[in-house]
């Protein structure tokens, strides 16, 4: 198959998937369709994402594909990985006011929150808490350290 016939076939494939998506997605619908005709995962070393000698994704390739799909579902059709390396990209978190996948129906009123932004918001909430609530939140966020401190102190007292 030549490059031009392959390109034509791919364009028809992409158009037909877009037609399916357009058929079911309209403003008043309570059902949404997301089509992904192809998944382009860009890497400096693309062979590291495949099973050696086969056109199948390995564990790392599946991890990248899952991250791309999750971020696409959360961010909506405007999610673009061309500006950042997928290995450096973070997982997007649904916002509190819009805790579901982006569809045509909810895309306009929903915002995207990155993991770092969510952590900053959580820190701001912890800072605003006072007394017992603040201590409980600090203990919850540092649970491993608290457990190790308790184990260390109890070992010390036994010795």
TrEMBL record:
Organism domain of life: Eukaryota
Biological process according to GO: phospholipid metabolic process
One GO MF term: phospholipase activity
Protein name: Uncharacterized protein
